[in-house]
């Protein structure tokens, strides 16, 4: 199941919105706490001052001041004798009130001259602040005022706070949207074809560099594939042209000889010679087609042969026996040299036989009358066996040595045609070497001779 794609813009937007909203809430909370503390401190300071003023007025005017006083709602003034008896109260009749000597603020005022206390009413939902002042006759004047509690104040301040929060949220939304667009914009504008030329975030430089490296790698691969395609296309055209030419030449000869015989233009005594020419060209055609099929099978790795343990010296001996008649006809002497016993190698018998046959066949065909062919088989260390085929023939010019393993390539086309060469022998050797993981080496001097060495690994690379 495919995972949903991640969106940078959405993540940035949510992060910015969350941070902004959290910051707004924290700011509102901090402001509320400090505002409440400042309000309480200022209120208490005012209440203390007011209590001092009232006490001075009572000390001067006595009961007459209290009797004509009408405190604000929530405020109350109580005059208490030194023994705790209530002398006067602006809300309740003194006779109905208990002794106040045990009150905290009264005790402090009697002992220190000033006292205060705060009592909270959970029923009324507010606090009562009491400020007591001792006057000159030893009595205490207490001023009490109701103070809104933090919870009540919060209920009052909640609507504007929510309004401020809503406004902050809207601003946070706008800010988050703008910020996310600005953050994502440079990423969206990266030129993926030329990422190094696009300015972007420093944190994205490794990613941009990797994209650039991958682009260069893809470009190089495309160029390599294009070159390979062009090379293969040229090779195909050349191969088609060479095959057409090579097939056309013997077919033309066969057709010409057959046409002359058909039209009765040949004397009876020449019919055998003409038939021999037709047979020779037909054999050349069969050999050419067979070589083409072998190379095609090797190219496609469709050779229907299994690997087995091969005795290369015995294979060379069998090939030389098979070519002995051709060597005698060409006046060439063949010798098998090297170790009497060499390690067995893993390979395909048919392919190895074709390789050795073509090497020895070429050494005989391109030799000179009275020349020699020496086939040497020897071990190369513990992991390989080398087969060298040397001749004393015409040799190969240096400028041609790098191309003799190409298909249909001939150094001397006229000589190849005379001896029946197809131009595919060394190509078969090359493909056979690739099949076995073997290496090829060619040394040649014109007029002196040629040596081709094939080094077979005892164990093929894919089996190691």
Q: What descriptive keywords fit this protein?
A:
464 residues; single chain; 5-stranded mixed sheet; 55% helix; 5-stranded antiparallel sheet; alpha+beta; rod-shaped
Please tell me about this protein's structure:
- The protein has about 475 residues and is an alpha+beta fold.
- The chain has helices at about 10-60, 65, 105-110, 150-190, 205-260, 270-300, 310-320, 325-330, 350-365, 400, 415-420, 425-435, and strands at about 75-80, 85-90, 115-120, 125-135, 140-150, 310, 335-340, 345, 370-380, 385-390, 440-445, 450-455.
- The chain has 12 helices and 12 strands.
- It has a 5-stranded antiparallel sheet.
- Helix 9 (about 350-365) runs antiparallel to helix 12.
- The longest helix has about 60 residues, at about 205-260.
- The two termini are about 40 Å apart.
- The model has no long low-confidence stretch (mean pLDDT about 80).
